[in-house]
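For this section, I looked closely at a protein sequence along with its fold in token form, which I now present.
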Amino acid sequence: MLTQLLGEVAQGASVAAATGTVAELWTRWIEINKDRLSPTTRRGYRRLMDRLILAAFGKRKVRNLRPAEIDAFYARLLRSGGEGGRPMSPQSIHHVHALLRSLLNQAVKWGWCPANPATRATPPRVRRYEHQLPTPEQLLELLRVAGERDPEFATFVRMAVVTGARRGELCALRWSDFDLTRGTVSISRSIVDGSNEHLIEKGTKTHASRRIAIDDDTRRALVEQQKAHEDRAAFCGTSCRSDAFVFSDSPDGSAPWRPGRVTLAFGRLCQRLHIDGVRLHDLRHFAATRMLVDGVPVPTVAGRLGHANPSTTLGVYAHFITSSDAEAARLLGNLLQPNNVATSAEEPP
């Protein structure tokens, strides 16, 4: 400990670094990072900190925090860290672990501690979530019933399937993002819920825009929806704004749909049709897996989904493409059939 203290003094560590608590570290960290975090992420971080991390370690000096204490903390969460004292899921504990690790990484950079104790802690193992993907038949039924009740919501569901876009990205679409003549759409923004029920428009998750193609049936559905918006605006004595949102209840298209609203509406639609376990986000997974299974190149799939790197696409969806793997085995095995070898030998190089 003496050697450690002398080393920190030699590096110019401050008194605040030597005595700073986890609560003080959090206050400084969130102030520095608040502008780069989305409102949803900030709210989630504050909830985890106030309810769990600060309750356990808020008054502890950062330099005195040890991996064994963090492991004991995770064990308590696993037993009774959920709402009402119920067990907390391993996935939720990993969210706590990720936040604590980021926080203590900053402490290391600032010289508040020589090493990050969270990196040597062991959160519980997370079981891979098995997505409940809808079948094509279920999707057709969803679109049929949605079209009868709310054609605009049916178009939203259709866009979710054919683009694989996130719900916030779909809510942020404006008519100016489309080239309906060529059948393309540019996805460059997202809508998120802010504080006090305000909606915030921000960049996409990867902070990059992408232009993707849409099929003819979807293009026609959008043309019909745009005409319906213009008729609605005229009936209300106004006109659609040049930057009108595609999915909007405002006569002039000035306000987008709330992301939480479409999630609830999709849940009610599935409940009405007795489709269990399928979430709105699973439409994105459906789009990805169908493209991969049908042989669409991974970089193309990654580009449509908005993944920054194709390796992300493979990491998330590799376990869904077992049928493609079986087809690859069949194809390679056929190459070694005697008839095929003989035929290949007769062909010119």
About this structure: The chain has a mean pLDDT of 87. The chain is about 55% helix and 5% strand. The beta strands are 178-179, 184-187, 189-193, 199-203, 210-213.
